[in-house]
Amino acid sequence: MSEYTVKRGDNLWNICKREFNLQSNRDIANKVNEVIKANGMTNPELLQIGQKIKIDFSKSTEEQKQYSQEVNQAVADKINFNNIQTYSDIQRLESSSVSIFGTNTVADGKQSAAYNDYSEKLLLDYYDINKDGVVTEEEFAQKEQQGNDRVTDLTLDKIAEDTRAMGAEPTEISDEEMQQYKTISQRSANLFAQNLDFNDNGKIDAQELAFFNKIADGLDGKEDGVITAASESKMFESVTGMNAENKEYNRVINKYLLGQTLTPEEQKILEESQQAIRTSMRKASGLNFEG
């Protein structure tokens, strides 16, 4: 049995998550309960700086370690795919996939926890720009836009390179055309973030991204923990409304995403479509965000 000294900002949840290197919310909750019992705590929320807590590290099981490694690897793979440096990286990203289920995940029935833990770690490791533990809509959209802009720049460079290889001089991109590309990139990223925030709290929560990932995983009918870039693209189209069944929604959304100016009436239709998409996702997720 070891002792841990409470520091400023500590609570039992983050202590157990950090000290035992746990990713599963269920495993963290179980560990918190173990620590509460081991220390005879009657009010575990009132920790004092400098307080000594007994912690039994012998209970950190190999299964928990393996589960954490599986989630960590999936997140590392995803971030690596998103790190686009060359045009070949774009092609690699388009055919990429990550696997968030391992042997222990399936055997222990941790599939739902894996979607949530993978999504939470991806948010914190990739989208949390200021590293404050919260991913705002703006941060999420900024990372998405950065990726969009990088793809655009490398694609235009590739077109120019191929044109020169054929013995011709590439057409110069005008400032107006470049601005249109940037507008499309920004609008698509913003719309994605705004609609993915289907509980309307201004943040992208792990449960929201986990819902996105779970549905993307199941598009092939398997829900085997393998999330492909192709399935993510289809989910992006659904979340933004690009493939909306409502033809008027579809027309206005695509007009907006193409960087075109909307009329006041079309702006109202866009807002109505966003609310409809978010409401639909809230219902489909079965999550209760009240309270």
Question: What's the layout of helices and strands?
Answer:
Blueprint: E1 2-5, H1 12-19, H2 25-39, E2 52-55, H3 62-82, H4 87-94, E3 97-99, H5 103-107, H6 111-127, H7 137-165, H8 175-196, H9 206-217, E4 226-228, H10 229-240, H11 247-257, H12 264-285
Antiparallel strand pairs: 1-2, 3-4
Helix pairs in contact: 1-2, 3-6, 6-9, 7-8, 8-12, 9-10, 11-12
Description:
This protein has helices at about 10-20, 25-40, 60-80, 85-95, 105, 110-125, 135-165, 175-195, 205-215, 230-240, 245-255, 265-285; strands at about 1-5, 50-55, 95-100, 225-230. It has about 290 residues and is mainly alpha-helical. Helix 3 (about 60-80) crosses helix 6. The mean pLDDT is about 90.
Question: Which tags fit this structure?
Answer:
single chain; 291 residues; mainly alpha; two-stranded antiparallel ribbon; 12 helices; 63% helix; elongated
Number of discrete helical segments? 12
The main β sheet shows up as: 2 strands, antiparallel
- Average pLDDT confidence is 89
The general outline is elongated
The ordered H/E elements are EHHEHHEHHHHHEHHH
Strand content: under 5%
Uncertain regions spanning at least 5 consecutive residues: none
Spatial separation of the terminal alpha carbons: 38 Å
Approximately how much helix is present in the residues?
Answer: 55-70%
Query: Which structural class fits the helix and strand makeup?
Result: mainly alpha
The Rg value, from CA coordinates, equals 23 Å
Quaternary status: single chain
Strand order of the largest sheet: 1-2
Summarize, please:
The protein has 291 residues and is mainly alpha-helical. The protein is 63% helix and 5% strand.
